[in-house]
Amino acid sequence: MSLPTHARAVIIGGGVVGCSIAYHLTRLGWTDVVLLERKQLTSGTTWHAAGLIAQLRATANMTRLAKYSQELYGNLEQETGIATGFRRCGSITVALTDHRREEIFRQAAMARAFGVEVEEISPAEVGEKYRHLNLDGVKAGVWLPKDGQGDPANIALALARGARNRGARIAERIRVTGVEVDAGRARAVTWQADDGGAQGRITADHVINAAGMWGREVGAMAGVSVPLQACEHFYIVTEPVAGLTQMPVLRVPDECAYYKEDAGKMMLGAFEPKAKPWAVDGIPASFEFDQLPEDFDHFEPILEWAMNRLPMLGEAGIHTFFNGPESFTPDDAYYMGPAPEVANFWVAAGFNSVGIQSAGGAGMALAQWMDDGMRPFDLGDVDIARAQPFQTNRRYLAQRVSETLGLLYADHFPFRQMETARGLRRSPFHAQLAENGAVFGETSGWERPNWFADPGQEPVYRYDWRRPNWFGNAAQEVAALRSGVGLYDMSSFGKVRVEGRDALRLLNHVCGNDVDTPVGQLVYTQFLNQRGGIEADVTVTRLDETAFLVVTPAATLRADLTWMRAHAGDLNVVLTDITAGEAVLAVMGPGSRDLLSALSPADLTNDGFAFGSAREIELGLTRVRAHRMSYVGELGWELFMSADMAGHVFETVWDAARARGGRLCGMHAMDCARIEKAFRHFGHDITCEDHVVEAGLGFAVKTAKPDFIGRDAVLRKRQAGLEKRMVQFRLTDPAPQLYHNEPIIRDGKIVGYLSSGAYGHHLGGAMGMGYVPCKGESPDQLNASRYEIDVAGTRVPAEASLKPMYDPKADRMKA
Ligand SMILES: Cc1cc2nc3c(=O)[nH]c(=O)nc-3n(C[C@H](O)[C@H](O)[C@H](O)COP(=O)(O)OP(=O)(O)OC[C@H]3O[C@@H](n4cnc5c(N)ncnc54)[C@H](O)[C@@H]3O)c2cc1C
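^ thats the input. predicted complex w/ flavin-adenine dinucleotide below
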């Protein structure tokens, strides 16, 4: 076997995803690309996919990628000569409940804002477009005329041919047996021919794990966590149905089913609520174009519903019962990007049954990312940096993926929480919070109180698009924060100590703000990229001359650590993740000073403890480090303490707070309060593609400081003027709810969408934030417009403001 001994990029895996990466790298001029496939191209999962190619995803960029795939597949045949079977047959999703109608209408509104052609349709119109359908119980539908279907294997083969034509080397029956890592970088792969004969080694500048359901195993070769697990995934295909011609793809999520017409036969696929993990202890070495055994009992409930919904199924015999494995991840989103653990090792795996429709866009985005060395746009939803090493535990994965497969078609209620594999990362306050009625939500494995049930109230979520059962609880918690005192647990904050002779140099290079401050000062800052986009939103506290604490959201800790490490180079600096070692209790509200003064001899007045500073104080019978800052816009302190002191501090503070009418608050209340104050939320309002100046955070960038990443981009933007501005909205009707992605309508025209939304309990209406294009316009012109927000197809008038609607001068935080 003659394979090269060096390549610029070695791709592991010849499914649709690996082929797409090869295709897109070569399109960018990378000819020295090698793809290694252990058996034959497509022989893993790709060959047996149903081939649904939809455009609608949960966020703008995921939709952008799916749209890109769909356009690419439409043109591949012309380019490569391989028929991809791609047809734009359109798709219909129907709702059988009012909840689902709300969901699909909100999705349709969002799709419009993202530039996807979409139409809300009545049951009668559903019937006109899909005459075979039993319309009993159908409440409404959504029609996407440009959605399509295609032949997955041929799409992959066409991508492979496109890559080959531009110089890529694609080798089948070559198994990668190891990935060599040296000094934190992937350097080479070792391989063996399938027949056990030849073997070799290829040194590589970049190694890409596109190994599908083998992705966890291939990640482990390099010491990289890729938490995914295969599940059995089912469909049936009928015998030919007389007179059946091209039909749109049909989804009936309330019955866990999708339908696709293919060559005069009908395919019925299932997303059942409880899935079956497969090969938890390892995929058989011989796996190649394999099928798994039929499980008729498992499929039967879906088939029964389907025969009622599409009576023709009862008449047509079943030609094929197909069961094939597909990989699923703990949060139902795929993985993409550079591995946090190892430089130059990239991941694109775990496609949760949407790999065909995602591969085109994912391949394009990954190739661009590799070529530029930076994300082409925000990919936070799928960034591999969100994966937690503990999630590679196989028992954890088996439990979790049995839920995530079905969630694809479950009601996507806002704040819906996972039910399986919970309770892993508990803050040191966990038991005390649970005793007091905490209802937990999960972020990066952390259990965090989202709201607190009242005595006698069932501490469980009852989801609803309009008024969920916790709506009143959050309102009371916000009232406590605004008028008394509220406590919330922020132990899940990522906390990184940055220490050493060059700690200041590193931080002043990655931060937009100047962190060369006196000891004990807090600095709110962003890590910027070369385009001025925001890579992280953190606070930096100077602990002493050569030691700093970087505090960051739980979900982005690994990404932020990776960013800092990548820029540390040879600097004399040590980064230590101390997240689990320190608990954090936020004490917020106008009553917080009095409360803490009763528990501590420290001078907490403005003279004794200025806003934006941090220092150790005595509290109860111990010492804590108090940081005077607030994400809810009130007077308050975040108390950091070593985890062993958390129980005592909690008892001390909570007993005193309760006696004063204080409340325990959850993340929902915190989010409501922060949006009233227009504080940006990383990942929603601010991402790597949002320029820090357009995000309204220019105040936190000090261009007088030389040589930090993004400085030139900030100077350029200030000179050229803004193209968009972050605007805060409040609906004038107090009834509707906003979450995010709702279209913003300015003077009758869609101009953008909300990047975040929550209910403003203090200001009395749903609130949102979002960017509005404003090239050449003054703030006054922006303010003078008439705004509405599209909520599930209804345009609701909104007030708009460029300044925070709550406490615009920040008097309350500095009180
Ligand atoms: C029943 C079913 C229906 C589906 N329907 C749809 C649909 O309608 N629409 C849609 O978008 N998606 C659908 N999917 C999902 C889709 O098939 C997958 O998401 C997609 O094929 C994943 O592609 P991949 O390239 O990541 O993985 P794969 O196709 O599995 O490719 C990974 C490759 O890596 C190779 N490999 C692994 N380890 C090594 C190694 N050590 N060395 C070399 N090579 C290695 C494997 O042999 C394999 O060929 C469906 C899936 C199933 C099971």
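The pocket of flavin-adenine dinucleotide is lined by residues 12-18, 36-39, 43-46, 48-52, 175-176, 210-214, 218, 233, 235, 324, 326, 349, 351, 353-357 (CB under 6 Å).
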